Structures are given as C-alpha cells and as structure tokens.
Amino acid sequence: MLFEQLRAQLARFPKLDYSPLPTPLAPLARLTGQLGGPRLWVKRDDGLGPGMGGNKGRKLAFLMAEIQRQGKRKVITYGGLQSNHARMTAAACAALELEAHLFFFERRPPTLPGNLLLDRLFGARLHFIPFGGGGGASMTLEAANRLVRLVALPFTGPGAYFMPVGGHNVTGCLGYVAAALELHEQVAQLGLEPVTVVTAAGTGGTLAGLLAGFTLLDSPVRLLGIDVGKLWKAFPVSIGRLAGELCAALGEPHDFRPEDVPIIERTYAGPAYAVLTAEAGQAIQTLAQSEGIVLDPVYTGKAFAGLLDLIRQGRFRPGEHVIFLHTGGAPGLWAYEEPLSAFYRE
Ligand SMILES: Cc1ncc(COP(=O)(O)O)c(C=O)c1O
Known about the structure:
With about 350 residues, this protein is α/β, with parallel strands linked by helices. The protein has helices at about 5-10, 30-35, 55-70, 85-95, 115-120, 140-155, 170-190, 205-215, 235-250, 280-290, 300-310, 335-340, and strands at about 25, 40-45, 75-80, 100-105, 125-130, 160, 195-200, 220-225, 265, 320-325.
C-alpha cells in the first residue's frame, strides 16, 4: 500500500489530537560513542498525550474519539498497579467529564504512589480486587479481557465502555499504525538504513500496530519487541491476530503467523512483570547519565536493558541504526524508590 493510501485509510477513523505530531526522533550521540556499536536514536513518544504522556496517548486518541461517538459516560479499564495506561485513561476521561473506573487485581497497597497517586489526582475510581494479580502467562490476553469485563460490569452498571488492558484492540492500535507511517517518513528523510525500531511489549498492541503499519507500507524498517512481563499465554498469537485485524480494518487483509511476530519473549522480563531487574536498574542509569533521558522500571527500563545486551552480543553492526521507541512510564519511578536506591549511590 502506498504511503498516501495508508494515510487516507487512517483518516477514515475519528481521532482526538493530544499532542503535536510527529514526536521527535533524536540521536543518542553520547551513548552511541560510549558503546561503539550501532548508531542509536530515540523516538520520544514518552512526551505524547494526556496526563504526563506515553505510548497510550496514540491509542487513546482513537479510543476516546470512539467513546465520544458512542456517547458513553463511564469507562472501564485495568492493568498492573503502576499501569501507565490506567493513569492516562484517567486523565483523558477527566478532560471529557467521563467516569474512569480502574480495576487492579491486587490487594489495595498501604500507600498509593506513582501512577496510583496520579489516578486519584485525575478523579478516577479505583477498584482493588485481590484475585492474585493474574499474569504468569496462565491466560491469553483475550481470555483475561473477557473475564475482567464480566467482573467489572457489576461495579459500574450497564452501558460502560470496556477498554481492554493497554488499549489493546483495533481502535486503539490504529495509533501505532499511524506511528509506523510517521517513523517510515522520518527514517526516509534522515536516510537511516538499515534501521531497526526496538520497543517494549506489555500487551503487545504497540508492536502489533507497528507490525501492521510497516507491513502495509512494505517498509524497509525492521522491528523488534522486547517482552517485559511474561504475562500472556500464546502472546505472539495474540499480537499476530491483532496485526491481521488492523490490516483488514485498513483495507488490505494480511495473515501473521506467530513466527512472523518479531519479539524476544521472556529473556529480559526477569522473574515477573513489574519486578525490577538489576539490568533494568542499570539500564535506566546508563541512559539517564549519558543522555539525561528518564526510563521507567516496569517497561522501558527492561526493554532498554534488552537492547544494551543485544548490542553487547553484536546483534547490530556498527553502521546500522537502531531506534529505541521511548514509550514513557516515568511516573512509575516513584513507586520503586526503594529497589532503585540500591543501585544509585550519591
Ligand atoms: C511505559 C510503557 N511502555 C510500554 C508499554 C507496552 O505497550 P503495549 O501494551 O502496547 O505493549 C506500556 C504499557 O503496557 C507502557 O506503559
């Protein structure tokens, strides 16, 4: 599909404007010099969207427009305690005078730091249901969504809009098809080739949208997702299915087998989702002290640690370009003060 055709297909879907686009694509010159490997770049989606920003800004732009069109007054979504998706949904709902109902399948913690503080600031209703937090790849993402929908509805009454975890549906992930278009254009303007985009994969919607977008464009941009949570059963199947649904919604059906999904599962996730790894703690420090850019302990810290390890292993040649998609998450830092302090001495 041609660039302008994809742009026209995307324009058929209503969308809110949260931030000026494109987001910057900036060189990481100091870090590139220190590592002596591929030429590193950062795509700043961390500054995008409502409520302190992050990748969910691209998804919410389409999701909130759909909610408005359907005339819904209440929105249900869920995630881990430090869910950036929940925080940004709360902010988007506040701005549209909608009730945000955020579900966390864990015990209510004694204090509510980081994203939880912001959730309250935005006036969201927090529901803590201690089912044990899920995860552990015991369920597919689709099964988890079906279950939560059933559990949550009695709390809000009928007529609420159910938003899957991470905004993981066709409407939300159109945002990352649009991001693929944006990246394809920036990469061409800067003449970056060969180039690989590396992103964290939590629910995999960001990866699915980019995969669909680059496939539709037949783009030379390569893609790599790094699993940060070991959360879902048959994760590549879910990501491939969503990428296929996105292509179909945009007028050009495409089948993605699980092996077509470029993801490194489990390797960099550590013991579990949201458990800080030593490598992530060090990766956060590396980027902060080389470039003054802040990552987060749950998503981008683990993904960046994976990227640093791949560079050390020689996965990318010196002339190649690697773009780290910064998906946000910094508010989560304040919920990890204790484990992070172990790494950072004054
Ligand atoms: C900061 C941050 N980065 C990355 C991700 C992963 O995005 P996705 O759920 O689309 O895989 C999330 C959310 O899950 C996030 O909050």
